[in-house]
Amino acid sequence: MRRFPAFLVMGVVLSLLSANTPAFAAGGSFPRMQIKVTSHAPEADLASRQIKFWADTVTRRTGGSITFQYFWGGSLLNIAQQLDGVRDGLTDIGYVASAAISGKVPDVSVLEVPFAFPLDDVNMIKFQDEVNTVLDGIFGRYQQKIIFNPSITADPVTCKSKFLDSAQAWKGALVRTAGRWQSETLKAWGANPTQINIGDLYTGMQRGTVDCTLLVYNLLDSFRIYEVAKYIARIDHSINYTALTINLNVWNKLGPAAQKVFMEAAEEAEKKGLEFRKGVTVDTIEKFKKAGVRFCTPSQAELARLRDATNQVWEQIRKTQGEAGHRIMAIAAKYRDKVVTGPTEGDRTPCPGA
After folding, report:
1. pTM of this prediction?
2. Domains contained in the chain, number
């Protein structure tokens, strides 16, 4: 049997260990790492600004030891690929949306449904704190954990050529949506749902593949949907709970000191996100108006019809849930009376049918 010198064997072992262990900064407790971040949202989007704020804070507090490489606008992974992409190490951090994963992870289903959670500053943070304790257990099965939840704006319904302001207007309308349970909600509202990747929505609107879309104000702006769709009915509701998650192997390589920095920066990013969000809806509406977009707010009876119709979707979802899903639904039910129906700021001109 051939023998190898002891120093050669030791060299191979050290080499293998170093390949799986990040180098630490000289004299410091932070590893030298460049971390990949992917998102379906464009770089200028509200959520992306919060993610960048968080990452810049981490880089600064680790003395430049931890840096980030960004892939915005689905350039590396689209919205449907984020969960598996983080799990499989195609990216280190991803921006995961409940509507994109509810087919694979049924227990998050209620979080994609309109009117499912509050959007006001106080109750939104409380809701996130409670739900994330359950979601971390779910995401752990996919080799990841939540860092924080970027703030989003409300969701109106945006159309090419008319307002969806009544049951009659909704009847048969081709409306783009993002997930199974949003589709069931649209059916309950009277529409024909169509699932289109968000990156294809602009051309879908142009070509008439869809008449309308559910999409939050900040993404209507980031994806420039206002250029091809000029009618917005302000049914403003919460939709499609999202989270920034990190691969657990990457998380473990950070070490305790860097992990502490990550989560402290996350708390600050959540607060900063609320600051960033202030005025976004009003400013977006004014920007869209200058581009020829018209706005109106449906009647209270119509808003109540839309919200009440989601109750039957909740009951359908309840039959598909495991223990974690029932816990999430119980939390959502507790906050149900805190969920605002309709717009709370900006232009509230009544719709023609109101």
Report:
1. 0.91
2. 2
